[in-house]
Amino acid sequence: MKEFFIVGNWKLNKTISESTQFVKNLMPLLTQGTSRCGIAAPFTALESLVKESKGTDLLIGSQNVSDQKDGAYTGEISAEMIKDVGAGFALIGHSERRQFYHESDELLGKKIKRALMGGLIPILCIGESLEQKQANEVISVLENQLDKALGALNQDEMSSICIAYEPVWAIGTGHAATPADVQKTHKIIRDFLARKWGEKVCYHLKILYGGSVKPDNIRELLSQPDIDGALIGGASLEVESFAKMVNIAREI
Ligand code: PEP
Fold first, then answer.
1. 158 with 201: CB under 8 angstroms?
2. What local confidence, expressed as pLDDT, does residue 203 receive?
3. DSSP characters for 66-117?
4. How far is the CA of 110 from the centre of ligand 1 (A)?
5. Contact (CB, 8 A) for 178 and 211
6. What positions carry a catalytic annotation?
């Protein structure tokens, strides 16, 4: 049975009490299975979520991490601080951070290093815009994003990361990429990484798909050989729909 990783990205949503109530409601709805699930929550809710999910297999992570360890960086949160509250992973380079906060691939490379040094699993988000897709630049855009953000990592570090392929035009639009197209792109990503870091590491590396994943399209997406999980925004905010998607992953 394949072990998928199903991750909810709550973005700028949910207070501490709403977050913990979500987990209380979620756990009884989940079936047993090898596939893992996680929630990328606002910083403020991380500690309470870690406590609420203790003893379960739900992973808690952040939606961002600083490229700095400590010092005079007002407003930043370090990997060590995130690890200190018990969280286990961090999203890095979500398209909303690239678009609204102008995070560059070079900065993301530093964040990935810091996340790894702080003991977090980085989930690097990559994806092309609609204009880049229409200009047939998908492969070059993705390879460039991967190269710049991951170029400094060694094989060992590569075995501790995840990739989330999220075409920007599919995020929050209700128009997911087709399973066949995602499969094709994930295979290109995996082959590119294998050429750089070797097949052994890259064939075990998890490549998640994100972009309008819902209970009614997740099964077909996860049935593709190179789709190892999903990063889910809108449909992860409702406990029933998130539970349904995790349970589908656990059935396949
Ligand atoms: C996301 O924010 O990472 C995402 C994929 O959002 P949505 O599922 O709402 O498209």
1. yes
2. 84
3. -S-SSSS-TT---HHHHHHTT--EEEE--HHHHHHS---HHHHHHHHHHHHH
4. 24
5. no
6. 94, 166
229 lines ligand 1 (CB under 6 A): no
Distance CA 245, CA 40 (A): 16
Over the range 131-155, which residues count as b (16 or more CB within 10 Å of their CB) and which as e?
ebbeeeebeebbbebbeebbeebee
What's 235's domain CATH number?
3.20.20.70
Ordered DSSP codes for 119-150: TPEEEEEE---HHHHHTT-HHHHHHHHHHHHH
Return the pLDDT at 54. Answer: 96
Nearest to 87 by CA among 124, 52, 46: 46
119 lines ligand 1 (CB under 6 A): no
Residue 201 has pLDDT above 90, yes or no: no
In ligand 1, which atom is closest to the CA atom of 171?
Answer: 10
Q: Structural domain tally of the chain?
A: 1
Contact between residue 210 and residue 230 where contact means Cβ atoms under 8 Å apart:
yes
Cα torsion angle, 245, 247, 249, 252, sign: negative
Q: Could you give the angle at the alpha carbon of 12 between the alpha carbons of 11 and 15, nearest 5°?
A: 115
Q: What is the pLDDT of residue 107?
A: 97
Pocket flag, ligand 1, residue 215 (CB < 6 Å): no
Instruction: State pTM to two decimals.
Output: 0.97
Is the CB–ligand 1 distance for residue 93 below 6 Å?
no
Which residues span the domain enclosing 44? 5-251
CA of 213 to the centre of ligand 1 (A): 7
